[in-house]
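User: Teach me something about this protein's shape.
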Amino acid sequence: MAVSGWFVALVAFGIVPIVLTGEPGVLALWLLFAIALGLIDMALAVSVRALRFERTAPDRVRLGETTSTQLRITNPSRRPLRAIVRDGWQPSAGAHSNRARLSVPSRERRELTTVLTPVRRGTREAAHVTVRSFGPLRLIARQTTVNLPGSFTVLPPFNSRKHLPSRLARLRELDGATSVMIRGQGTEFDSLRDYVRGDDVRSIDWRATARRSELVVRTWRPERDRRVVIVVDSGRTSAARIENEPRIDTAFESALLLAALASSAGDHVDFIIYDRRVRARVQGAVGPDLLSKMVNSMAPVQPELIEMDWNAVPKLVRQATTQRALVVLATTAESPGASRGLLAMLPQLTAKHTVVVASVSDPSIADATRDRSNRDAVYLAGAAERALLDQSRVVTAINQFGASVVARRPSDLPLALADHYIALKAAGKL
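Assistant: First, the predicted structure itself:
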């Protein structure tokens, strides 16, 4: 049961007879009259339990995109339904307005549309629908909550895909240049051409030379079946929000752009989300199927408030490939204490693989070092300088172990990681 503002106004109107007659007993009679009228009005309201509900929700939507869900309410009774309906989506589903007035004539059906703009990845759910059914006078309503589950999956946004065409063009240019520049063992044969002074004699094709009676050399290009293993840290440090975005979401965005680029270049991509157990794994997928499986595996994963187990990472990489590979570790490289496990594990990976550590940097730390306006700002600037010094120490240690670091703010990290991958291709390290 719910009391409306009209009922409150009706009760308050009872002050008028008291002022006119001066008899307090009139108020009691007025209250009895108002309650009786309200109960009669509630009895004439349609029972919520007699209504029939159907829900239609989207299957998947990208984070930040707007979608809608439909709620159909059928009134099988002989009286018209006058109601306020609240569709119970959780706040992170981003309902623009989840309450609406609805009138459903007898034995008819009406549809209520709720516009949603989700603000978090994962499964967004609605558990119930609450209906407040009024009588003809709208004094006292019947209110009931009906269980009506519904859900949809919010995928990573992959906003950085707008950079993919330009990076693919650079890869195609690189492929054309390296077919002539790179010669020797361990690369993929491309074509034959006449010998030029300065060419490596080991690249001479003696059979072709015998057929043509002049020196002919083989040209090579980088192999197109290299391995790329992306490991995303889903431990406690990935839950921190930088520029209103969790670190793990930035890592997913970077992994998607790198995977799309590497797959287009002909490389095999393996993707793993790990903290102390494997949260998601994608292996053996190529082309569009790769990105589809990656976004589906990313969607339900949330950071776990536990420490990352770096000792298990070399084994995970061995399970993915026994060949030399580019191993990308999407994690936090800031404080020496938090990076101790990472630094202890790195020599095992760099002994066989090319390792890149992709880390999100917080621009507010650098901004804090420039403010000296008051005493509090000076203390904050000192703390920020110390944090930057710790970051520099961690980056230096990672470089000494033979790995490289790509650290950028959230909006820049995906593109910086893609450019680093292209630079490794250009240098012949992949």
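Now, about its shape. DSSP finds twelve helices and 19 strands in the chain. The radius of gyration is 33 Å. If you'd like, I can walk through any region in more detail.
User: That's plenty for now, thanks!
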